[in-house]
Specification:
5-stranded mixed sheet
């Protein structure tokens, strides 16, 4: 353990990061994982089976995210039980191989209520990602490739447990609020068949020692753990930077641009309604205002109303 620059005080954060770095691991992969089968790159799925030992170790920052996710599930289970639901079959093994799919995984839990049970997957998400997921179609349309994989994982668990209905329990890492989104197997039979066909295609390449072609979705390459050994043609797209935090902040900035004009319009409308009205209590908001006199130096003398809104 190192010491900080302030005398002999311990470098707590440095020691924790060092331990996280030592704790990074790569695990063997001999089947198609339910959590990955939704990937849109078959080449990546083949590498996950044949070159798993060459997979890049997660960064220390990403390891913190992985380890932090381990506290999400116990928190969710506590909420469910406190609300009167049963929770059982935690980490139940799922094995799908009826026609050579070789898909395996571990279901987070089964939620029981009034004699019925439902497969449930718990996901802890950044606040803005959580905000954008309100129906199952939002998963498929997400700009984040890992979110687009989630429905495939739950569908495999629903199929493996012979369940028509299953759900995602989503927790915002910002507010710790829960959100449940239901999925119905009968609505996604065609997609499930496509997943099974994809799994059999992967198995064929693994057995033959071959590789499928490169994906046309070059955006998938930037975060791929096998980028170094895959060597896809990426000319013309610039340097690939793997920085999940920066990527999420840029994506959030990009998403918010469309709301700027709406905000400006509301700002003008609200301030027009408040002009000259003094102190007000509007719902949970305290509104104060005063006239501001402006001397005429380089601009003509004028005055304007300044409002301040504070959430109580």
């Amino acid at each position: 353990m190192t010491s900080s620059d302030q005398g002999n005080l311990p470098d707590i954060v440095g020691a924790i990061r060092d331990e996280k770095e030592r704790g990074r691991r790569i695990y063997p992969c001999h089947t198609n994982r339910a959590s990955e089968i939704g990937s849109e790159c078959i080449r990546q799925l083949v590498y996950a089976r044949t070159e798993w030992q060459r997979k890049e170790l997660p960064s220390v920052d990403l390891q913190f995210i992985f380890d932090g996710g381990k506290v999400i599930e116990p928190y969710a289970i506590g909420m469910l039980r406190d609300a009167g639901f049963q929770v059982f079959e935690q980490q139940r093994s799922i094995d799908i191989d009826g026609r050579g799919e070789k898909i395996t995984g571990h279901l987070d839990m089964t939620v029981g209520f009034e004699g019925k049970s439902y497969p449930c997957e718990v996901k802890g998400l950044a606040g803005w990602t959580w905000d954008g997921l309100n129906k199952i179609e939002d998963f498929f349309a997400s700009p984040r490739s890992y979110v687009r994989r989630y429905p495939a994982q739950l569908l495999c668990y629903m199929y493996g447990t012979n369940s028509e209905d299953g759900c995602f329990l989503l927790l915002s890492k910002q507010t710790w609020q829960p959100k449940v989104i239901w999925m119905h197997l009968s609505d996604h039979v065609q997609y499930l068949d496509q997943l099974f066909e994809k799994a059999r295609t992967v198995n064929g390449h693994v057995e033959a020692g071959t590789l499928p072609g490169f994906t046309d979705q070059k955006d998938l390459c930037k975060g791929c753990d096998f980028l170094a050994i895959c060597g896809p043609p990426l000319e013309g797209i610039g340097e690939i930077v793997v920085d999940l935090d920066l990527e999420d902040r840029i994506r959030r900035w990009y998403d918010l641009r469309e709301f700027v004009s709406e905000y400006n319009g509301l700002d003008k409308s609200i301030k027009g309604s408040l002009k000259g009205r003094g102190d007000l209590l509007v719902g949970e908001y305290l509104v104060t205002g005063k006239w501001i006199e402006r001397d005429g130096y380089e601009v003509k003398p004028s005055r304007y109303w300044q409002s301040k809104i504070v959430k109580l």
